[in-house]
Amino acid sequence: MNVFEAGAVSSYLAWAKLHSDAPYNLAVSGMLDYPLADLSVRIEDLAIEGTGPYGYQPLMQRLAAKAGVGDECVVYTLGASMANYVALTALVRRGEEVLVERPTYDPLLAILAQLGAKVSRFERRPDKGFRLGLGELERRLTSETRLVILCNLHNPSSAFSEESTLRQVGEMAAKVGARVLVDEVYLETLFDQPWRSVFHLGPNFVATSSLTKAYGLSGIRCGWILAEPELVDRMWQVVDFTYGSPVHPGELLAVVALDKLELIRARARALLEANRALVNQFLAAHPELECEPSRYGTTVFPRLRRGNAANFVALLREKFETSVVPGEFFEEPQHFRIGFSRTTETVGGGLERLGAALEAFRKLSR
After folding, report:
1. Which of 41, 92, 233, 303 is most buried, most CB within 10 Å of its CB?
2. Strands 322-323 and 24-25, how do they pair?
3. What is the pTM of this model?
4. What's the CA gap between 270 and 211, in Å, rounded?
């Protein structure tokens, strides 16, 4: 399939860039932007020249130390989106079978379509809280499967998969000669437990992530891939024929951010804890939405029990100045994704309007 054919283009990102903005924006899943002033960087601390041929060494060393790996296992990329593109381009050949969870992050499917992969699916069931079902996954694996793709935390539901579960996924995949790619970009929002990448669970694991979602550092585009050295060499070759070289001021800013990560983490944790409490109070008070309480991450993915969810989302934005992500972008049209990583005032105000919209929609649906 050509990437520009119907369904192949990443329609979610186009919608997010062009149509998600609203006075009360609950469509955003990344942490509130961290102020540049709080990084205490002076213009004379930055430079245009100085990047290395394959990663700025001070940054590569910090990323490797953060992940607990050698820097020969790290590819630096321009954010997690580019990390996924580079990793998949290196891992997947045209016509190869790739097993992907459903629902999933739409751009992953768009990349696979561009690469000409044969995509098969396994379900994360809403009635199981979108938790990873090993039986379902194992039934969908075949001798032709070359790659399994997961998100942990799951996007859009924020369901968390334990290491013991993911280790079993790796063992299942290894039996058919497949690798496992895990997008870990939301994993670092688990502020109450030590961060450890799935890469440590076995040689057939590849992990992607960035400083965007958990820390509010989207603007510096610091992403990475963790992989075995042989794959790393192949991925650097993909970098060579895509963007070639990174933006060195961004690399320098990433070094500063990584050196201040505990401070940045504390700010993000306090904001998420306050907002998660508001979200769980809201869900408990609105049984017309089917959704487990939030435990992890920056989003929830409720199902509207009655009425058309797309019509509700449209009403919410047009009449109540509040945006959420329509479930159609995650292959679940009766759901919608609520993000709660903005200011507490924005989240609280958005939830109030969400409640008012539910009441108005109920009356319209009678």
Report:
1. 92
2. parallel
3. 0.94
4. 17
Q: For residue range 236-267, what is the model confidence (pLDDT) as tens digits?
A: 999 999 999 999 999 999 999 999 999 999 99
Give 41: exposed, middle or buried? Use CB within 10 Å, 0-12, 13-18, 19+: middle
Which residues on neighbouring strands pair with residue 339, listed in sequence order? Answer: 299
Q: What is the pLDDT of residues 58-91, one digit of tens each?
A: 999 999 999 999 999 999 999 999 999 999 999 9
